């Protein structure tokens, strides 16, 4: 029966790889091929170095524009500041990916392969609900990958829209005015790979919690003989350990980079609100610029907080999931395991933002509120009251 689970996971892997097809292509274009495990000397990483160099050159043009307009209204430099901040986010992520690509590969392919569920042991026990458990696991994984597919498609579309707008507007301006327009130079596409991996691994981690909770609901069912219940529970303990280790790896990989994402996204949202307040009626292209930034930069921080909240919610349900089975009618060993796991799971798991805060709905609300406060300050300093 374990072979049946592995066969199901192998079939799901084919569908999962189709879902990540565009992500693989984008990662290759950015010089970090996450489809394969490569070392630091992989020639494709020369593309990454080239893109970083071009981006830094673009930043020089952006800041030259800001300096040139230092005596003008802030509106003249707002667009350049937004694109420059997005460029910094992309540069940080590209550099980070170069050095830890192998670790991201392990995280991502643990999700696509479903290998944390291999050798689980439950399907080797003499229980009568194997088909039902197999179906429930399959349904949870499919729902999680449907969520991943929706988030990835919308996120990639948002970034492509931002890139397309700035690229073609540049070509249009250059064609008519025959000069380079530096404020429209920077593209945001290179951040997609990093954040796309985050979507996949965090949603998958949340799905693993759901699978664990579903398995625990059957721990004292009549379909599981009493002689097998302790072994069944130990298999659940093993899965809990795997999930916790997977969560710990995700947290360590995104803990520090997420701080730069939060700070720069907050600044971008502040500037976008300012641009909307002072120039929406004067410049029709400003509406499209705002939409691009809100969908690309705004959605970047949304996926961190929205998916981080999934981990908080699911891990917070773990103690009650262990406790709610009919453990009081079971053997002393069964009761001891339940007691230990309730204590062990009693600490809610958070994806941290460099030790300052967590990826959660409350953090997202705080970022929006802080951006609004800085927007009001910026408006007052610009004399727009």
From TrEMBL:
- Name a Pfam family for this protein: 7tm_6
Superkingdom of the source species: Eukaryota
Q: Where is the signal peptide?
A: none
GO cellular component, alphabetical, reads: plasma membrane
Subcellular localization(s) per the UniProt record = Cell membrane
Q: One biological process GO term for this chain?
A: signal transduction
The molecular function GO annotations come to: odorant binding; olfactory receptor activity
What is this entry's stated membrane topology?
Multi-pass membrane protein
* Membrane-spanning segments: 46-66, 152-177, 189-209, 259-280, 286-307, 349-377
The coiled-coil segments of this chain are: none
Q: Which UniProt keywords apply?
A: Cell membrane, Membrane, Olfaction, Receptor, Sensory transduction, Transducer, Transmembrane, Transmembrane helix
Predominant location of this chain?
A: membrane
* Homology family: Belongs to the insect chemoreceptor superfamily. Heteromeric odorant receptor channel (TC 1.A.69) family.
What's this protein's name?
A: Odorant receptor
Species name: Glossina morsitans morsitans (Savannah tsetse fly)
């Amino acid at each position: 029966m374990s072979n049946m689970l592995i066969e199901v996971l192998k079939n799901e892997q084919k569908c999962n790889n189709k879902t990540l097809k565009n992500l693989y292509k984008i990662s290759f274009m950015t010089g970090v091929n996450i489809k394969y495990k490569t070392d630091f000397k992989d020639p494709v990483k020369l593309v990454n170095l080239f893109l970083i160099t071009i981006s830094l050159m673009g930043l020089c043009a952006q800041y030259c524009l800001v300096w040139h307009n230092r005596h003008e209204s802030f509106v003249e430099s707002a667009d350049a500041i937004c694109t420059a901040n997005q460029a910094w986010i992309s540069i940080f992520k590209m550099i980070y990916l170069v050095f830890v690509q192998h670790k991201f590969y392990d995280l991502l392919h643990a999700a696509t392969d479903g290998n944390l569920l291999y050798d689980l042991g439950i399907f080797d026990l003499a229980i009568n609900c194997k088909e039902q458990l197999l179906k429930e696991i399959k349904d949870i994984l499919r729902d999680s990958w449907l969520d991943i597919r929706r988030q990835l498609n919308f996120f990639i579309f948002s970034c492509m829209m931002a890139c397309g707008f700035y690229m073609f507007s540049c070509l249009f301006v250059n064609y008519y005015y025959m000069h380079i327009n530096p404020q429209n130079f920077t593209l945001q596409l290179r951040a997609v790979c990093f954040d796309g991996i985050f979507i996949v691994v965090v949603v998958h981690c949340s799905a693993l919690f759901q699978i664990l909770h579903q398995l625990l609901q059957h721990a004292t069912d009549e379909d599981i003989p009493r002689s097998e219940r302790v072994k069944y529970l130990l298999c659940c303990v093993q899965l809990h350990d795997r999930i916790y280790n997977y969560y710990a790896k995700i947290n360590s990989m995104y803990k520090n980079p997420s701080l730069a994402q939060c700070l720069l996204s907050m600044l971008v949202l502040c500037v976008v609100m300012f641009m909307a307040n002072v120039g929406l009626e004067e410049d029709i292209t400003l509406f499209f610029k705002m939409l691009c930034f809100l969908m690309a930069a705004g959605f970047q921080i949304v996926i961190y907080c929205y998916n981080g909240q999934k981990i908080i919610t699911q891990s917070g349900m773990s103690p009650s999931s262990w406790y709610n089975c009919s453990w009081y009618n079971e053997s002393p060993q069964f009761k001891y395991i339940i007691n230990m796991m309730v204590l062990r799971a009693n600490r809610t798991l958070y994806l941290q933002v460099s030790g300052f805060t967590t990826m959660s709905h409350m953090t997202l609300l705080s970022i929006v509120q802080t951006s609004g406060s800085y927007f009001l300050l910026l408006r007052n300093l610009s004399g727009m009251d």
